[in-house]
Write a structure and sequence with these properties.
Length: 119
């Protein structure tokens, strides 16, 4: 990794998240800056495969200096909480669709985002 390399992190490195991790390490100019999962063994496994730090807390990962952007790849019913934690950190976010597991939760997220002031 060079100083010009952009650090991307994956939250939820299961089936889809592992694919993202492989894609990230295969692209010049970016590097995998962290793997985070509530299953610590899974996060350690993926981090070990790609030589990146492991996190068990999304907020801690999102506030790390080397992490420039975060991709949330958790199961769809678990997208919302980590997505909001990343947004609260001020970091750019990508979320596997859908944003939430129910329409009610998605509407709540939209409401949160329309009133969110970045703090």
């Amino acid at each position: 990794m060079t100083s010009a390399s952009v650090g991307l992190s994956v939250v939820g490195p299961g089936l889809i998240g592992r694919r993202y991790a492989r894609f990230i390490v295969g692209i010049g100019g970016i590097h995998l800056a962290g793997a985070c999962d509530m299953n610590a063994a899974l996060a350690r496994e993926v981090a070990g495969e790609h030589g990146c730090p492991v996190y068990d807390d999304v907020a801690a990962l999102a506030t790390t200096g080397d992490v420039a952007r975060v991709i949330v790849c958790t199961p769809e019913v678990r997208h919302l909480e980590p997505a909001l934690a990343v947004l609260a950190s001020g970091k750019p976010l990508a979320v596997e669709k859908p944003i939430a597991g129910t329409l009610t939760a998605a509407r709540g997220a939209a409401l949160d985002l329309t009133t969110w002031d970045g703090e």
